[in-house]
Structures are given as structure tokens and as C-alpha cells.
Write a structure and sequence with these properties.
The protein has 554 residues and is of the alpha+beta class. It is 48% helix and 24% strand. The protein has 13 helices and 14 strands.
């Protein structure tokens, strides 16, 4: 009975193992055939594309790490001039070049504890500015409004015209009174004749009328002169009353709005952007104006988009080989003043999308850990957004001027302007394959003097393909592991069933009970384990290697 049970269990186990072997062999053959087909696909050759060649030539231009005598704009112009580019569309090279900038007020970066955070965000702003220029070139939804508003009636001009007429009327009456007054008091007539408009003239006119009234009432004056005097007096008094009323209305208009001019421009752009590549990045701090500036030179071309497309699909693509390997490129550059993204092609023609992140280290262990995490996360972000991102730009510029009555015959005006922008790039739930860390080190930032942690990540078409193969291989191994575990579990369950069946058979138990006697069992002596010396305390300084290291040669 027992022999039959174990034979059945063994037969089940052998059958399951054979089934697992056949399944695994089929999967392995399919995996190897697919991999071979992938390797046999003809790679896309980009070696003759003008945009790729131009970009490679630009990146190959050595950039001096520091040029104190040059401002950041001059460094950008020098780079573009030496690379043979201009901002905008370069028709001969099928490339669009955008220069993104940002400015930060910074009294002195050396004692600004949050300077590295601001630097990282300002680098992001410059990158968004450059990408916005690219998508705005492709398509822009624009709205424009220019408006000039003027009150329906220019009361100021009308009242000024009326006052001018009243002044001429008053002056005419003055001349008539001067002629009459000259016969009564020549000296006073001369004073009245030389007076200018204002309160003094009014007083002199009133005095002249009073004197002529007294004289004409007491003396024998011919009727003709009396009529002339009465007519001039009446006209003067009426004109003076109208003048006062009009002048009061004119004063009431002082400060009233006479004109409004408005101009507004609003633009909107939004689209996915694939393959926006940073050619160069510059930063400076000017101690005179206390401003920190960042400039990003970014390029886009159809071929760069094709390179990204091939990366996404895991296909091969060749470009003209560069002069150094990726390791030489990483190790032979000073990354202390670098942020954002880069692109690199190695000496085998592989294209890498590079991301650089940096964060201030601080003084504690926790702050250094935080710096490592932030720098790594930002570097990964730069890699991802260089490959694909949804970019949007919304900008609005407004200008306005208002003119007011100045009360002196001339207007006064005030003007103001505003600019609002919202730039963004985003991605969500995207799979990125082949991303790896190339560099992680503490170095000193040359401008602020602060110790920073710099992390560099990158991907390439080759690394993406290898990552996909690794993923497939691991899942195949997992499938085999699942089947193997099923075999082990089935074998164990068979054993358990056999044990339960045997336990139910009391034949052996009864026979053994009949033969059983008293049996003594030797007890092994307990072995003592030496404890650590309690007198030994305190940590030991220095560096230590953990045991069990692998030489990584297999």
C-alpha cells in the first residue's frame, strides 16, 4: 500500500516537471526568436541629416566654464555665432532655436540658504520659456484689442474758446472806459490802460466806473458821452459776470478724463513637444545689479523628434559616432554650474538624453539625504521632459494711458503696463525604460560657494532596448518560478496526503505497541555561547567593507 502511494506521488511530480520543462522550452524558443528578429531589423540611419549634424557640431564646441568679463547675453550670442545658428527657424539646418531666460533678484547667493532651490526653479522657468517659443512658432491662438476712447464733447475746449471771447469783449470795454477816464483823470486812465487780466484789472475797472459815475452825475456832460459810458459799463459788467461763470465751469473740469487708450495682446499655445533638446546652458550673478540670470539654448528638429520616436518604440537608430564614450563625457566635464537637460552621442553612435539635478547638501545627515533625493528626482524629470511633455503657454500683455484736464490749457497723462504669463509642461503615467544614473557627487557651486549634490541620469535607445529585454527575461523567469512553485506545492500536497493516509492505518501502531518497552534517551549537554565583552563600548571611526562581497566578474 505504501509503495503504491509513493509511486503515484512520484509519477505526479515527474509529469508536472516534464510539463514545466516543455512550457519553459517553448517560451524560451519564442523569446530567442523574437530577440533575433529585433536584432535583424535594419536600423534607421540619421548620419546624413543636416539638423543632427548641426546639433552635434554645436554640442562639440567647448564651453569655457567661466568668463567673468562677459555677460550672459554675450555668452549666448558667442555660442550661437560659433555654432552657426540664429534664434528662430534655421532653414538650412531644418532646426528651430529658442533661447529661454529667467532673472532672480539675489543680494548675495553665498548666504542665501534657499538659493539652490531658487536656482533650480529659475532654470525650469528658462526651459519653459524656450519650449513655449517652440510651440508658439508651430501654432498660436492670438487675440488683440486696441482701443481709444474720447468723451463725446470737449467741454474744456469750448469753455476756453468762450473765455477768450469774453476777454476780448472786456478788453474792448476797457478801451472805451480809458478814453472817457482820460478826460477826468489821465493818470488813473494810464494805469487802467496798462493793467493785465486778473483781479487787479477788475478793481481798476470798478474804480474807473465809480469815478465816471460820480463825475457824470455832478457835472454837465453831453448826453452822447453818457450813453457811451452806460453802454460800456453794462457790457463790461455782463461780460465780467459771464467770465466768472465760465471760469468756474472750467475749473470744475480740471482733473476730468479727456482720453483713454488701451492695447492688449493675448496668446495661447498648447501641444505635445517631443525631442526639445538643450544645446547649452549659462548662468551668472552680477554683484552690481544683484541679479542672478539663467539662459537655456534649446533646439528642435524633425529628426530629433524621430530619434525620440525610435527610442519610445525601442528601435535602433544610428548617428555619426562622437569622439568619446558616455563615461568619458560624464567624467571629463565640470558639472558644478550645470542644470537642466542635455543630449549626447557616444563614440558608437548611441544618442543619450541626459538630465542634471542639483540640491544644497546642508550640514546634517538628513539634509544630505534630502539633497540626494531631490537631485535625483529633478534629474529624472529633465530626462523625461526632454523626451516627451505636454507644453502650454498663455500670455497676456496690456498697456493703458489716460489723459486728464490739467486746467492750464494742456492735458496731463499717466500710463501703465502689465504682463501675465502661465507656462507649463506636464506628463502623467508614462513608462520610461532604460533610465540610469551616471553621476552622483558632492561638489562646490562656483557662484554661491555652497556645497551641492549633483545627480545625472540618462537614457538611450540602446539602454531602452536592454531594459525591455531585461523586463521580458525577468517575467519569463517569474513564469518559470510560478510553475516550479506549483510543482513543489503539488509534491508537498501529495506527501501530506500520503502521510494522512498512513496515519489513518493503525496496523504499524498496534504492532509497535506490542513490542515496545522502556527506552532511555541521552541528553546532550548544552553548549555555552561566549558573549561579547561588556567592557567594550563606543563606535569605531573609519570606513568598513561588509563581508561577502562579489567581484562582479560573472
Amino acid at each position: 500500500m505504501k509503495i503504491f502511494i509513493f509511486k503515484e506521488v512520484g509519477r505526479i511530480a515527474i509529469s508536472l516537471m516534464l510539463l514545466l520543462s516543455i512550457s519553459t522550452a517553448c517560451l524560451a524558443v519564442e523569446y530567442n526568436e523574437n530577440a533575433a528578429q529585433d536584432e535583424q531589423q535594419a536600423p534607421l540611419d540619421a548620419s546624413h541629416d543636416t539638423s543632427v549634424q548641426a546639433a552635434q557640431a554645436a554640442v562639440a564646441i567647448p564651453q569655457p566654464p567661466s568668463q567673468p568679463a562677459m555677460d550672459i547675453d554675450s555668452m549666448v550670442d558667442q555660442f550661437l555665432g560659433r555654432a552657426g545658428y540664429m534664434q528662430g527657424w534655421n532653414a538650412k539646418k531644418d532646426t528651430f532655436i529658442a533661447v529661454g531666460t529667467s532673472v532672480l533678484d539675489s543680494e548675495d547667493p553665498s548666504y542665501d540658504d534657499s538659493f539652490m532651490i531658487k536656482r533650480s526653479l529659475k532654470s525650469m522657468e528658462a526651459t519653459l520659456d524656450a519650449k513655449a517659443q517652440i510651440i508658439e512658432f508651430i501654432r498660436t491662438d492670438m487675440s488683440v484689442m486696441d482701443q481709444a476712447s474720447t468723451p463725446g464733447t470737449d467741454l474744456n475746449a469750448k469753455f476756453k474758446e468762450k473765455i477768450d471771447k469774453l476777454e476780448r469783449k472786456i478788453d474792448n470795454q476797457r478801451k472805451k472806459l480809458v478814453a472817457l477816464l482820460r478826460e477826468v483823470d489821465a493818470a488813473e486812465a494810464a494805469v487802467l490802460e496798462g493793467a493785465t487780466f486778473g483781479d487787479r484789472l477788475n478793481r481798476l475797472m470798478d474804480a474807473a466806473i465809480k469815478k465816471l459815475d460820480t463825475t457824470y452825475s455832478s457835472a454837465q456832460i453831453e448826453e452822447k458821452k453818457k450813453i457811451k459810458f452806460e453802454k460800456a459799463k453794462a457790457r463790461y459788467q455782463k461780460a465780467r459776470m459771464e467770465y466768472s461763470q465760465t471760469e468756474a465751469k472750467l475749473k470744475a473740469l480740471v482733473g476730468s478724463k479727456t482720453e483713454t487708450l488701451k492695447s492688449s495682446v493675448e496668446t495661447m499655445s498648447a501641444m505635445p513637444l517631443m525631442g526639445g533638446t538643450v544645446l547649452a546652458q549659462f548662468e551668472e550673478w552680477n554683484s552690481e545689479d544683484e541679479k542672478f540670470r539663467t539662459a537655456i539654448i534649446m533646439m528642435w528638429s524633425k529628426k530629433m523628434e524621430t530619434i525620440v520616436r525610435k527610442y519610445i518604440s525601442g528601435e535602433k537608430m544610428t548617428v555619426p559616432p562622437g569622439k568619446m564614450s558616455i563615461a568619458e563625457y560624464i567624467n571629463n566635464n565640470d558639472w558644478s554650474s550645470s542644470t537642466g537637460g542635455r543630449r549626447f552621442r557616444d563614440n558608437e553612435g548611441n544618442v543619450y538624453f541626459i538630465g542634471i539635478g542639483a540640491a544644497a547638501v546642508g550640514s546634517s545627515a538628513s539634509s544630505e539625504k534630502r539633497a540626494r533625493g531631490i537631485a535625483s528626482a529633478n534629474a529624472k524629470k529633465e530626462v523625461a521632459t526632454a523626451i516627451f511633455a505636454d507644453v502650454s503657454s498663455h500670455k497676456k500683455a496690456e498697456q493703458m494711458m489716460e489723459s486728464y484736464n490739467g486746467g492750464t490749457g494742456k492735458d496731463t497723462s499717466i500710463a501703465a503696463e502689465s504682463f501675465a504669463s502661465e507656462l507649463s509642461q506636464s506628463m502623467k503615467n508614462r513608462n520610461i525604460t532604460g533610465m540610469q544614473r551616471f553621476y552622483s557627487r558632492k561638489i562646490k557651486h562656483p557662484i554661491s560657494g555652497q556645497t551641492i549634490y549633483v545627480s545625472i541620469y540618462g537614457v538611450s535607445g540602446q539602454s531602452a532596448r536592454q531594459a525591455l529585454l531585461m523586463e521580458e527575461s525577468n517575467y519569463l523567469t517569474r513564469i518559470m518560478d510560478v510553475k516550479s512553485q506549483q510543482v513543489h506545492q503539488g509534491t508537498k500536497d501529495g506527501y501530506e496526503a500520503a502521510v494522512q493516509k498512513t496515519s489513518a492505518d493503525k496496523t504499524s501502531y498496534n504492532q509497535a505497541k506490542a513490542r515496545s518497552g522502556s527506552v532511555s534517551t541521552p541528553v546532550a549537554k548544552a553548549q555555552s555561547v561566549p558573549l561579547a565583552d561588556p567592557s567594550s563600548s563606543g563606535g569605531a571611526g573609519g570606513s568598513y567593507a561588509g563581508a561577502g562581497q562579489d567581484d562582479a566578474s560573472w
